Amino acid sequence: MFSHITVGAAHGSTLYVGDMLFYAILFIVLMALIAKFAWGPVNAMLKERADRISNDIDSAEQSRIEAEKLAKQRKEALDNSHAEATSIINNAKDSGAKERELIIGNAQNEAKSLKDKAKQDIEQERADALKSAQDDIASLSIEIASKVIKKELDENSQKDLIDSYIEGLGDSK
Amino acid sequence: MSGESISTFQFLGLTFNTTNLISGLVSALIVFCVVFALSRNLKLKPTGKQNILEWIVDFTNGILRDSVDEEEEKNFGLYAFTLFLFIFVSNQIGLFLQIAWNDVSYLRSPTADPIVTLTLSLITMMLAHYSGVAKFGFKKYFEKTYLSPFKVWLPIGVFTEFIDFLTLGLRIYGVIFAGEMLLKMIGGIAFSGGIVNMIVAIPLALIWQGFSVFLGSIQAFVFVTLTSVYISHKVEDE
Predict the structure, then answer these.
(1) How far is Cα B75 from Cα B59, in angstroms, rounded to an integer?
(2) So where are chain A's domains?
(3) Is B31 touching A (CB cutoff 8 A)?
(4) By residue range, what is the domain housing residue B22?
(5) For residue A85, what are the CA distances in angstroms to A6, A77, A81, B24, B220?
(6) What's CA B28's distance to the chain center, in Å?
(7) A47 contacts chain B (CB < 8 A)
(8) Within a domain: residue B2?
(9) For the segment A62-89, what is each residue's pLDDT rounded down to a tens digit?
(10) What one-character-per-residue DSSP string does B100-115 give?
């Protein structure tokens, strides 16, 4: 170092004070330029990135809480709908059973009344049939009797018949 | 420097060394162009070159983070970043590019000259001391720096500060200057004799250049680390 300075001095000067000044200014100018063109933008960008990341973390946390809330709500709704469905089914079953009983009761009543009516009808029918059969038999027997009477009106038989009547008369008294 | 002449000129009563001017300017230009190119088209989601820039920023911030707290890290981040890149480029530039004409080299590592490294060291020390005064006020700064742990420590305190300034600058100068000188000597061997010398010198130069790249990077790192340590001595409340 000292030989160097001596060399400098040999050229008719002392220390290179000018160099010191030059380097100081050069360094400051370089620093200013870097600050303007690189340091500032890079740091701004780094800060923006840091902010962005912390925001993202915050919003992720928020989303998670919201999602949990939604899941809970959904679960509740699902449970509710289960209960509701059960009650609806139960209601439907109850009303179905009632309806069935009603229908069956009605049907039974109707069937009974129909049966009764049918019975009555049959009775009526039978009575009518019997009556008409009696009439038919009476007229038939009269006809047969008249035919028999016409054909076999001979003396013997007439005599027997009359005898039997007479005997009958005596018995009835 | 042996026997090499130096080109100087006078301006406003000050002496300037042309070599240092050119070398420093070229280094600064390279630093600025690289940083400028890397910082174009910044995106929230980093890609390619932006990753490189962010890595360098993170690297120099990490050096600061080791010795100062978060608030100071923000204050000195730009300084550490610029310092590191400038010293790094300055250290490396002489390894692959040296321009000499009429026995005067016009382009070499600016950090191979003690005046340059001591200037950088002075900037660091001034910044550190200024920050100390700005933060604690002159009285407390003075007590903290020079009168601790005892009042009779004052001469040692002053001496320590001066030594810090000198070693910070001379350490890097020594390494880079020695590296360049050896490289020049190897180059001299290569061109002094026949083809045999050349064949021997090429791998030697290669190895030494590789080693110098390593040393230059280490020195840039050490310079910024020590800068942050000195700053932390001044601004941290023990």
Answers:
(1) 16
(2) 2-172
(3) yes
(4) 8-235
(5) 105, 12, 6, 87, 78
(6) 12
(7) no
(8) no
(9) 999 999 999 999 999 999 999 999 999 9
(10) EETTEEEES-GGGSHH
